[in-house]
Amino acid sequence: MTSVPRVLAVFDELLREAAPDRRGALWQLAEQGRELDANLVRLPPGGAVGAHQEDVLDVLLVAVAGDGRIEAGDESLELTPGTIAWLPRTSRRALAAGPDGLAYLTVHRRRPGLTIKPPAPAAPAPVRVPSYEGGEAPCMLDLVCPACGRLSRDPEPVFCSRCGERFAQG
User: Fold this and answer.
1) What is the dihedral of CA 50, 51, 56, 61, to 10 degrees?
2) Tens of pLDDT along 110-119?
3) Among candidates 139, 163, 138, 137, which has minimal Cα distance to 150?
4) What separation in angstroms does the CA of 2 have from each of 5, 31, 33, 34, 84?
5) Least packed by Cβ within 10 Å: which of 17, 114, 146, 166?
6) DSSP notation for 56-99
7) pTM summary value
């Protein structure tokens, strides 16, 4: 079967038909065999996406409706309809919606699907030599996302850079 171009959605219709208090992804690209992912996301007035870092993918963000800003360190980038922003991988950023809320499209390379791999052959047990320096290894459980299990590189994570889940604040 040959692929053909087609219209998948109309932003104005998606925004108009969604419940006024609905936030999050209003639409997602879900075509089979695609190499891209795209999402139409809406934040309510004053809503926010906490500071996070995407370690693997560059993201293109296009503001569609409302207004808001991207907070990136000491810099604040204003978002109005038609603004296109590049969020390079490894950049730390947060989003905040203005008084009218914010709707935006994100586009990035598709993440590879999760696969189950056969277990690796067992390595021989290492020879343990007693050490009298150091002590116990640090517990890193507070750096593991409770939803997807990803280990954060951030020493004090707030949101998971893979799935967006909030870390417990302790």
Assistant:
1) 70
2) 876 555 666 6
3) 163
4) 10, 14, 12, 13, 32
5) 114
6) S--EEEEEEEEEEEEEETTEEEEE-TT-EEEE-TT-EEEEEEEE
7) 0.64
